[in-house]
Amino acid sequence: MPAPETWLHPTPAGLYCVPGQFFIDPPRPVDRALITHGHSDHARPGHGAVLATPETIEIMGVRYGPQSAGRFEAARVGHDIDINGVSVRFVPAGHILGSAQIVLKYGGQRIVVSGDYKRTADPTCAPFEVVPCDVFITEATFALPVFRHERAFDEAQRLVASITRQPERAHLLGVYGLGKCQRMLAHIRETGYDAPIYLHGAMQGLTQLYQRLGYGFGDVRPAAEAAGKDLSGALVVCPPSALQDRWSRRFPDPVTAFASGWMRVRGRVRQRGVELPLIVSDHADWPELIDTIVETGASDVWVTHGRDDALVHQLSLMGRKARALALVGFEDEAD
Amino acid sequence: MRAFAELLDRLSTTQSRNGKLALLKDYLRSAPDPDRGWALAALTDGLPLRVPLRRSLDVLMADKIDPTLYRLSRDYVGDTAETVALLWPDAARPMDASGANDRGPSLSEIVAALDVPAMHVAPVIGSTLDRLDVRGRWAFLKFIGGAARVGVSSGLAKTAVADAFGLAAGDVLEAWHALSPPYAELFAWAEGRAPRPDATGLPIFRPLMLATPIETADWQTLEPSRVAAEWKWDGIRVQIAATQRALRLYSRTGDDISGAFPEIVAAFSGHDVTLDGELLIVRDGVVAPFNDLQQRLNRKAVTQRQRMTHPAHVRLYDILSAAGEDLRQLPFSARRARLETWFAESAPANADLSTEIAFESFDALASLRADARAAGIEGLMLKRKGSPYLAGRVKGHWYKWKRDALTLDCVLMYAQRGSGKRSSFYSDFTFGVWRGTSAGGRELVPVGKAYSGFTDAELRELDRFVRKSTVDSYGPVRAVEPTLVLEVAFDAVQPSSRHKSGVAMRFPRISRIRWDKPAAEADTIENVLALTGAEPASD
After folding, report:
1. Is B158 a catalytic residue?
2. Mean pLDDT over residues B128-156, rounded?
3. Which domains does chain B have, with CATH numbers?
């Protein structure tokens, strides 16, 4: 049997499958790319051919336009596809809409490239499925034992309680525009909050895509439409950068909220000047990372972007083979 | 515990003073006794507990987590108590013995449980952590650890007590020193269930009388014969509160700083008097720069050597009580006479009287003030001879007439976002002056940071300039193209190891924005050093 790193390994152009002749989530344009999900550090424009889930292709279309790859091929989730003798299967990763793990079989070995993933419930995407494998390639965004995320629904309730408590103030909720935004909208509606929710312009295109694909978020309106109106007590969803931007000055004495796994640590809350930190993440927290690795039964674990030092150390304490895989181009911060 | 955890958590993310006050008031009105008293203690004087926290946590964590993971976590979080709160395992669903949801221990249970020998503290902390959720664990560790660091000063907490129950802030401050945690008498008084706590016989803090800057219109209301003039010294205002039982040296805000100045405590012990004065470092009769006094401030204890090299001294301004008699209602001139009599009889060491300046006219006084800078004096104080001693900054009685500010033209280098209402504006400005480099060129070195002096309209223009001229950003800080000249007004320059230039300005503010002036014509480090008499720092 060939050693797994002889047929799948990092190159300057990204993670490369040698016999399959394709890259996974490459940071630069390549002939053939397999894309795990639509976040911009994984899905980039300019590839010759892109194989991804139908939802990821839709997301890339909204973000970069339909011509952003030479050819888009939709992968049927859960079905094997043969690429130059390598068997490829897309399996839900539970990270955001359309996110998938990519399962590769070659020479009697199975490698799972998990992309980004989480194990907790998310009403806007299919749940993570465990695939037993020999090598599990994992992210490590929140790979420190201090990171344990809260239940997203509970955090949505905290936000709604704050709006109820301070009806004279607008609430600005900073979230990343793909995934977190729509997940929070869904959870906020689950709490029974039924007032209109205003969206910053940057959140509209992708939210409309979710709506087109059948996800309902109730009465959602562009924030620009509310210009000049009384926004006391209103909930406005915007990108994190807008919280401290000139844009935020139009709102009356706003409460700034930020939904992110980073909000677990007070230093990060202070740094952002956030008044209402909500600890919600689309990445696995520390217990989820460890549990997932154990459940896959992988004897060899490759750790990509994030805090690989702590995770590699923990896995070695557990008697597992683990190493950091230096992949270029991924952002740790976006959550 | 739950209410206290919620309070501490929300205080830590609330920026505005009014927001913090509202949270504190709600808590103080609704929490039960004695818990609210213990909470108040944690935010003011501290708990009467000595918990070896760091050591206990090390013991507890040793068998909870691998040391490498603990170190990595602590490095990332930057605070041991917070790290432990985050790492501690969550109880599945805490239940008490009766099967109901455990609401966690009360603050008073915690205080009682920790009243054990140091060696038994760790297990008590551990079993308490077991009963709390993550916010509760953090609040608990901050509660017993002393420094809550949630942006609430002891003064603000006391103001909240006054506001919550409709008491005068001055009355709360006076009564405070008759109280000890958990302040049952305070809340009984506040809720009208008991008389005001009696501070007789104890060295209580009496809120200081403060001056307002003199304005043009004020001169018409003043007559030279009815005004006393004194030098305004560049130290810190203090109050010496001495009774037969004890002595305390208070800062302007009522913080007890006795520990840092034992020679002052010794000099005034045994008297029964309350005095107002300026704390200075004085060597052979000469007042040292403020920077020298700073070496002795913010220390819990002082070494013999520091007492020799930085001898403390109090220049007395006023007398508030003597032999149990409250003198504050007397006019200033009568108090001054009592002060002189008391000083002549008592002759304390390390002290002298503030000189009364004789003057015929305000013009004559103005020429004396013009020399103040050369004499190392901050300016003049004008006090109405008929005014009683009033708490706080009451207009129309005492005036400060500071020496004129110095100004320099500096170049804007960095801008940082403000907080609260200013969080969307770049409102904190770091500026520098030119310095020659070894290569024969010139570079900018920072000399200070200012966040005031401009109007709201000017702030919007500055903010626009910063966003347009950004060349680099580091978190909330932006580096800008060095093209904008700011005329900076400041009181003095002093040596600083924190600035690359080796100097820092005191009380800088932006006096004018010089949109017209080319950056190359801004001032140089030599211009700055000429104001301190120091040599340029080598690079």
Report:
1. no
2. 89
3. 2-145 (1.10.3260.10), 212-402 (3.30.470.30), 406-529 (2.40.50.140)
